[in-house]
Amino acid sequence: MKELWIEIDKSFSEDVKKGLLKSAAKTCDTVLVDIEDLENAKGTEVKIAASSGESDITVLEAFDENKVKDLKRMGRVAAVKVTIKEKRDEETAIQAAELSSDYIIVHCSDWKVIPLENLIARARGRSKLLAQVSSAKEAKLALETLELGAHGVVLKTSNPDELLETAAIAKEKAVKLELMPLKVIALKQIGTGARVCVDTCDLMKPGEGILVGCQSSGLFLVQAEVHESPYVETRPFRVNAGPASLYTLSSPTKTRYLSELKAGDEVLIVDREGKVRSTNVARVKIEWRPMVLVEAEHEGKGFKTIVQNAETIRFVTKEDSKSVAELKPGDKLLAHVVEGGRHFGTLVKEETVIER
Description:
- It is a single chain.
- The chain is of the alpha/beta class.
- It starts with a strand and ends in an 8-residue tail after the last strand.
- It is built from 7 helices and 22 strands.
- The chain has 2 domains: 3-170, Alpha-Beta Barrel (TIM Barrel); 180-348, Endonuclease - Pi-scei, Chain A, domain 1.
- The model has no long low-confidence stretch (mean pLDDT 87).
- The chain is elongated, with a radius of gyration of 24 Å.
- The chain has an 8-stranded parallel beta barrel with strand order 1-2-3-4-5-6-7-8, surrounded by 6 helices. Strands 9-16-15-10-11-20 form a 6-stranded antiparallel barrel. The protein has a two-stranded antiparallel sheet with strand order 18-19.
């Protein structure tokens, strides 16, 4: 796991700050704040970084050799910010590392990869290298650069959803989706449809798959093709997901239609504990196959999904998995249930949406 910091800009509204601090308490190692927000940050019960001596980590906005030495003499944890605009800025970051600065926070203003590669190679083992980023996409690049990646990232955003997506990348255990058992109430064979197989760049194991469903509010966990069978080889990279019109999760907060997925896109792998990791689509294969409708319910609410009518399609349960060919009313299947509707894949809890 990597370190995740959230930088809360003093220009953000009080409501935005409050929302970010609330999310940071669950996902972050450190919150980086302006002095005026120190008191509010203390309620998060995570480390606080600021330019003030009252913080857990003292942040220097620019490298100052004497200040770093003074902080180290006092036993303080020191972090130095360095903006990389040219080659000599790399040398400044290396110098700060040689003085045993605990953290070097690097902002690459133009070239994003090469300067970071150079610093990972030269400063690693001396100081913890943190890359300043503004999105989950940038965080993923920084954490995978030169294979080793930076020690962590400092995310600067006003969007709590971006924080959750970054946490899913930086800390696989930080973000979990709640899964609950839905009771099957009916099964119905229906006609032929455009079935989507999602082939990923990863390998899945029993109990892992992707979430899909007819409604964005109820997504069933369909297992990857990892179950041993005398008739077909296992394909641990593949999930036979269902019709092209089904929803799936492409991030912890956003859905997409299966029809939209293509090579290179991101999709979430989820296990029966709700742990998630992001992977990329290698290919999408669409073929016309006979389908079966699965209806289930939870607390009086009905949820549906459709899958190919074949023995190899299995739903994840609390203990194991079950083939759609073996399903019967009363069986319980794991699913992710949320409230509200979606607008271009983003959850809008206040919106009234009826899906049947």
